[in-house]
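Sequence in, structure out. Go.
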Amino acid sequence: RVGSAVGWGMSIEILCSDDTLVIRRMTLAPGEAGDWHVDRCRRFSVIVRGDRLRIEYAHAGEVVELDVHPGLCGWDDPEERVHRAVNIGRGPYEEVVTFHRTGPDVDPQPAVASADG
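Output:
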């Protein structure tokens, strides 16, 4: 789902992209889950808003809960396990991520049709 980063519900906004980078802003309303996906590229994430996030892994049933805060940032490597983020915080969650593409046609976070992958 692509749209404005302001408003109700999940939104994804591509701020900039070229053959080597995609810079994307994503927001999740409280209680909202993002799409099931895999991560194809190394990325650098910056938390803009939010206080708590849950990462759910589809196949292993693994769940990781994270305390987050504005300004929290870091690098992540590609993740081939199907997963999604869920905003379990008190307010909106917002992040800006820079994906480092491995090729011009690489979708950095392709959605998976279902949790079954």
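Check: The longest strand covers residues 79-87. Residues 1-7 have pLDDT under 50 and may be disordered.
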